[in-house]
């Protein structure tokens, strides 16, 4: 028998809420009578994501309607970590949280309460409203710091003025693309069709990476370097450009500050030294520098991995400076591209109302959760942890210490999750 097709459906426009720069445009068909989503798919009319969703999101309705979703509050009844829970009502849950927090606030103040969240969902409601307004008003400790791209954000702001990059479609104008520590076939799927078209139009694609990635297999050239030596390679390439008169010094003099100091620093990295540090052959480094300085426009597209090494921020600064030295800034299809996040603007205070609230009593770095739960902060100690939009035991460094902290009998932990 053919399935019954509801007569009244609407199609709701949306965007993928996962922590992914592609932000795919989505469509959801909803049965108006039951309110149930019937079909979830990519919006074919979006100019960049073009109706293609990755494997994480294609079965999204299976996640939404999964039978093991947690749809009501649970209270632990056995020892911590024992996995025994009882179902309670929302009134009971909210009442218990409220009374426990009032007692903590009366004894130690609201700073003893620590909300802990990250980018499980990047929607404004969950990430910005839920992560700020209530906690600001409560006066809880404020989570600060970054697990992902904090160093790159600061580095690009200091170098090019913001977390800004080229329009991904501009690669169609590029004649040379350096994919630096970047594996778009795995991590930026919507950039790949544009990259392939650029290749078909004659652009040369060079992958610089410690690993021969999937993207490297389809590149025109693969330059393998040792992990953490990207800065040395960039400085050596700049040095070649300065020494051979290929650097765009007129542009640098007119549009930048500090370039002469950068030239001096680059001189400390002659190609032989860089070859030894990076493992890339000296002649490859020289050829790459010449090619980048003489092929216009050329794009340096950078992955996030470099910003997670020691000196990650300074490495990103060098990779952002490299196309400037090569005279690639301001050219369509040229320049540096790590992220386009900075192009999205909204009035943050109208969402967070942070300006209406007193300053947070203290800031706690999210990366130090394990230490902070086990004695690194004591005035007051963290007595309650409210976790949402993240799973710190799986995603934050020093997970053993985090578990040790979570097992503290005196820690009142609330987790708001889907499963
Ligand atoms: S590629 Fe996947 S995770 Fe990224 S925005 Fe699209 S559907 Fe979401």
TrEMBL record:
A family per Pfam: Molybdopterin
Superkingdom of origin: Bacteria
Iron is among the record's keywords: yes
Gene3D superfamilies linked: 3.40.50.740, ADC-like domains, Dimethylsulfoxide Reductase, domain 2
Record key words, sorted: Iron, Iron-sulfur, Metal-binding
Domain 4Fe-4S Mo/W bis-MGD-type: 9-68
MF-aspect GO terms: iron-sulfur cluster binding; metal ion binding; oxidoreductase activity
Name of the molecule in the record: Anaerobic dehydrogenases, typically selenocysteine-containing
Species whose genome carries this gene: uncultured Nocardioidaceae bacterium
């Amino acid at each position: 028998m053919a399935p019954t097709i509801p007569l009244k459906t609407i199609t709701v426009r949306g965007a993928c809420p996962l922590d992914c720069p592609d932000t795919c445009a989505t469509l959801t068909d909803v049965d108006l009578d039951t309110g149930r989503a019937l079909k979830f798919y990519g919006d074919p009319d979006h100019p960049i994501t073009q109706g293609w969703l990755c494997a994480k999101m294609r079965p999204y309705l299976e996640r939404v309607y999964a039978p093991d979703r947690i749809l009501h509050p649970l209270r632990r009844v056995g020892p911590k970590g024992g996995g025994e829970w009882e179902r309670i009502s929302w009134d009971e849950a909210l009442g218990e949280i409220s009374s426990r927090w009032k007692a903590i606030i009366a004894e130690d103040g609201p700073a003893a309460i620590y909300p802990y969240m990250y980018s499980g969902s990047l929607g404004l409601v969950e990430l910005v409203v839920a992560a700020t307004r209530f906690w600001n008003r409560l006066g809880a400790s404020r989570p600060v710091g970054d697990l992902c791209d904090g160093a790159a954000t600061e580095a690009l702001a200091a170098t090019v003025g913001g977390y800004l990059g080229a329009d991904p479609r501009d690669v169609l104008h590029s004649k040379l693309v350096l994919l630096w520590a970047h594996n778009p076939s795995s991590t930026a799927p919507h950039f790949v069709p544009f990259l392939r078209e650029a290749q078909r139009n004659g652009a040369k694609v060079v992958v610089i990476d410690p690993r021969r990635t999937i993207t490297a297999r389809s590149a025109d050239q693969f330059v393998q370097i040792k992990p953490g030596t990207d800065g040395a390679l960039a400085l050596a390439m700049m040095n070649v450009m300065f020494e051979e008169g290929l650097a765009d010094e007129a542009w640098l003099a007119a549009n930048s500050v500090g370039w002469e100091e950068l030239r001096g620093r680059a001189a400390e990295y002659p190609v032989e030294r860089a070859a030894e540090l990076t493992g890339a052959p000296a002649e490859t480094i020289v050829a790459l520098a010449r090619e980048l300085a003489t092929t216009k426009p050329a794009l340096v597209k950078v992955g996030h991995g470099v910003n997670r090494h020691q000196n990650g921020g300074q490495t990103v600064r060098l990779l952002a400076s490299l196309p400037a030295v090569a005279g690639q800034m301001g050219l369509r299809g040229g320049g540096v591209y790590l992220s386009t996040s900075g192009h999205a603007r909204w009035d943050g205070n109208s969402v967070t109302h942070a300006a209406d609230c007193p300053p947070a009593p203290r800031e706690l770095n999210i990366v130090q959760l394990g230490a902070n739960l086990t004695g690194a902060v004591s005035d007051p100690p963290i007595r309650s942890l409210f976790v949402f939009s993240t799973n710190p035991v799986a995603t934050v460094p020093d997970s053993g210490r985090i578990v040790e902290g979570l097992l503290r009998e005196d820690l009142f932990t609330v987790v708001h999750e889907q499963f």
